[in-house]
Write a structure and sequence with these properties.
Elements lengths: L3 H34 L28 H6 L3 E5 L3 E6 L5 E10 L8 E5 L8 E9 L4 E2 L12 E2 L5 E6 L4 E9 L4 E10 L5 E12 L13 E6 L2 E4 L2 H7 L1 E4 L4 E6 L3 E6 L6 E10 L2 E10 L2 E3 L4 E12 L2 H10 L15 H18 L2 H15 L1 H16 L1 H11 L3 H15 L8 H19 L42 H16 L6 H18 L4 H25 L12
Parallel strand pairs: 1-7
Antiparallel strand pairs: 1-2, 2-3, 3-4, 5-6, 5-11, 8-9, 9-10, 10-20, 11-18, 11-19, 12-13, 12-15, 14-17, 15-16, 16-20, 17-18
Length: about 575
């Protein structure tokens, strides 16, 4: 029978390989990509299904500032409790959007998060709506000058824009917005000409340049959508390889997600709409797009047609996404948050964390409390596991005697050990299986802490002012005592150090592997994990250290009750 340490070793080594890959290969690759993208100029991106793209400008090596580009066009301002920005009247694009409730840093006077930017600025990112006819002619988008009597879009007052075209079509667009992040765009076409016109409504989100993503294996950043009740996530590099991915489903939503922010188009469910992810490369600049093309509408002379669609642009706050999903019947809208394979656990964990964070007025305390609740829920399983490990630790002197007596005869050693387990009524695997069952639960909690915007800029105590970033202290300058800024590869904060110590102490309570090579590898694990986790968000490291500490206390009590020696020595015979 394989010793239980083999299974533990396989689990730990698998996680170590994933972390090593991320640290040694993926992180440098992402940094190289980021540096390359910083040199690229902004440009346009491809059109939606059947819609030709506007001509791309030549651009400049140093694009003008975003503020200058915004000020260079006639606009209707946007002012709500959650959003600031404007709508461009020269093309009707929503291309200037700032999240009023979120800052770049923990400093309250730091700049707000810029979500959308216009063409001409660095890395344009915007939403556009309009119509296309059967010949591919576009109406209501680029090169369409809109007029309005209103200067500002507010929650209480929608904006009505109009444009009259040379072909006899009069376009009327009403844009409304709520107090959070949802726009409602109602498009109307009045045919004042002499012939019927066949039109298809469309909407598109267009993003130039690949954004600076984390590139971490447990987080999706990039094009995303739900089609026919199925979630589809497309990585930027996969879309570059594919070029275009068309979704034939007629219900759902499509957009682009960052770690904390989302833009999404929600077509009307009154008629079918084809949706698409697309990419092209022009002038060495990557351009990404998600779009929908609605069903054909025939506008007879003297009549009109109308279609209403929604556009989300904002923060991925779970309570807000849930409310939209319920009130507007948007399927799986909460899955814009990357809950992962264990979403049936990760979402409840997130809701628990938010609930207790509101109660304690501290997200860090909520992490500690929820970890305790999970420990209590798994107390019977953990108890069984630690009791089994304690029995194994008590048997170590007898196992050592067997190895010395049998020598290199591995077959006989296995037989003798099996007989020993049978006499002492110890199952070496029973201590491992309860721990294996808990792994998905703890991974789900770990993922929630990694992806939740609620932890962003949330303070803890002491030196931790933002649980979503790594521990700001560093042992290499004696935690700030020495006035020296260590290089980026020398990072080891106080909390990662505490986590490593608790991991080492927990390891010392477990029975040592019989194989000397395994024992040396396990001895290195706390050091390896401490180095890897040094760059992780402080909230994750605090959770890990606290979970280790609770496990140590539980295992210590069980071992004392069973008379198993702590840190060596002989087992109690009483």
């Amino acid at each position: 029978m394989v010793d239980q340490k083999n299974l533990f070793m396989a689990i730990i080594l698998s996680l170590t390989i994933l972390l090593a890959w991320q640290f040694l290969f993926e992180a440098p690759r992402q940094e190289q990509r980021r540096q390359q993208l910083e040199q690229q100029q902004a440009s346009e991106v491809p059109a939606p299904l059947g819609v030709p793209d506007a001509p791309a400008g030549s651009g400049s090596v140093l694009p003008p500032s975003r503020d200058d580009v915004v000020a260079d066009a006639a606009r209707v301002t946007i002012g709500t409790p959650s959003l600031r920005g404007s709508i461009n009247l020269s093309d009707g694009r929503i291309d200037d959007l700032v999240l009023a409730k979120f800052n770049e840093t923990v400093e309250p006077d730091s700049d707000n998060i810029v979500l959308l930017s216009p063409t001409g600025a660095e890395s344009p990112y915007f939403a556009e709506f309009g119509w296309v006819d059967g010949s591919g002619n576009v109406f209501g988008a680029a090169d369409t000058n809109w007029s309005t009597r209103q200067a500002e879009l507010t929650v209480e007052r929608p904006v009505v824009m109009e444009a009259t075209l040379d072909n006899g079509l009069r376009l009327i667009r009403t844009v409304a917005v709520d107090s959070d992040y949802m726009f409602t765009v109602t498009q109307q076409v009045v045919n004042e000409g002499d012939e019927a016109v066949r039109l298809f409504p469309f909407g598109r989100i267009r993003r130039t340049n690949t954004p600076d993503i984390l590139g971490f294996f447990i987080l999706h950043e990039g094009p995303i959508g739900v089609f026919g009740g199925n979630l589809k996530e497309v990585d930027y590099d996969d879309l570059r390889d594919e070029g275009s991915i068309v979704q034939e489903q007629t219900e759902g939503w499509i957009g682009i997600t960052d770690k904390y922010w989302l833009t999404a188009l929600i077509p009307s469910t009154d008629a079918p709409a084809n949706m698409r992810f697309s990419h092209n490369l022009r002038d060495n600049v990557h351009r990404y797009q998600t779009d929908y093309l609605g069903a054909e509408m025939v506008v007879q002379p003297g009549s009109s047609v109308e279609v209403a669609n929604n556009f989300f642009a904002g923060a991925k706050e779970v309570d807000i996404l849930d409310r939209y999903a319920t009130d507007m019947n948007i399927g799986l809208f909460d899955r814009a948050i990357d809950f992962g394979w264990f979403f049936f656990m990760t979402k409840p964990f997130l809701l628990m964390l938010i609930f207790f964070a509101d109660m304690f007025q501290n997200f860090g305390l909520s992490i500690l409390f929820v970890t305790v609740l999970i420990k209590l829920a798994f107390f019977p399983l953990a108890n069984k596991s630690y009791k089994s490990m304690s029995r194994m630790k008590a048997l170590q002197p007898k196992m050592q005697e067997l190895r010395e007596r049998v020598g290199d005869d591995r077959q006989k050693l296995q037989q003798e050990m099996m007989a020993l387990y049978k006499r002492e009524k110890v199952n070496p695997v029973s201590g491992c299986l309860p721990m294996v069952i808990q792994i998905p639960v703890f991974f789900a909690l770990y993922k929630v802490l990694f992806v939740s915007i609620e932890m962003r800029h949330a303070p803890f105590y002491g030196w931790v002012t933002d649980l979503s970033v790594m521990d700001p202290t560093n042992i290499f300058n004696l935690f700030g005592v020495i006035p020296w800024d260590p290089p980026s590869f020398l990072v080891l904060g106080a909390w990662p150090l505490l986590m490593g110590i608790t991991m080492y102490l927990q390891q010392k309570l477990n029975p040592q592997p019989p194989d000397p090579i395994q024992a040396k590898i396990f001895l290195m694990m706390p050091v390896i994990f401490t180095i890897f986790l040094a760059r992780f968000p402080a909230g994750l490291v605090i959770y890990w250290a606290w979970n280790n500490l609770l496990s140590i206390l539980q295992q210590y009590v069980i071992m004392r009750r069973m008379g198993v020696p702590i840190g060596g020595g002989k087992a109690s015979t009483t």
